[in-house]
Specification:
Length: 182
């Protein structure tokens, strides 16, 4: 059996904990506490990480780590990115400037996991189906310095999250093929 460490980055409220819980099938560890950050009206927020094991249809296993979105916990991002096989950058379709919101996480990807396969997940697509996806694609290319696939989805849906993971695993396989030929 192959295990893949997958790290989820994204702003406060983007749905990182929601995504991890959606595919956890009951076994989930989270470190959410009552939110005291006045920049957000959220009731709870993650302060260390979310974690869940996910079994893929092909027998592989994902070890999913959701990061805390708040900037004051940004020191944890590179720690969690160590040894990652894949990265998901989440952005909230209902935020005022979704492309801009991704920037600091794309920079973290570029700095700490430049070669690790990654995808962009646009969460809350159920709430804002007319979100400007082109702006997100351009921001990702510009800031990460490489093109990244983009998947609009609903982070509460197990099926939707599994589809996002499928796109990420496709990137992982493609990267492995390229590696074998250099
Ligand atoms: N309708 C809808 N609601 C969502 C979606 N994703 C997340 N939510 C809701 O958005 C809120 C915030 O989600 P969280 O998963 O706590 O966000 P987070 O990224 O873990 O935030 P931090 O831990 O504070 O960084 C919750 O109330 C979720 O139910 C989505 O795709 N659609
Ligand atoms: Mg969280």
């Amino acid at each position: 059996m192959i295990e893949h460490k997958v790290v989820i980055l994204g702003a406060m409220g983007a749905g990182k904990s929601t995504l991890v819980r959606a595919v956890a099938g009951g076994t989930v560890i989270d470190t959410d506490v009552i939110n005291t950050d006045t920049s957000s009206a959220k009731l709870s927020t993650t302060v260390a990480m979310d974690y869940a094991d996910v079994n893929l249809p092909n027998g592989d296993r994902l070890r999913l780590y959701g990061t805390p979105g708040q900037e004051r916990f940004s020191f944890i991002w590179p720690v969690l990115l160590q040894g990652a096989r894949g990265v998901v950058i989440l952005a909230d379709a209902s935020s005022p400037d979704v492309a801009q919101e991704m920037e600091r996480y794309l920079l973290a990807l570029r700095e700490h996991a430049a070669k690790v396969p990654a995808v962009i997940g646009i969460s809350k697509f159920d709430l804002v189906p007319d979100v400007d996806l082109d702006a997100c694609v351009l921001q990702a290319q510009k800031t990460a310095g490489r093109p990244l696939p983009l998947v609009p989805f609903d982070a509460r849906s197990e099926d939707a999250v599994m589809m996002l993971m499928d796109v990420l695993m496709g990137e992982v396989e493609a990267a492995a093929l390229v590696e074998d030929h250099v």
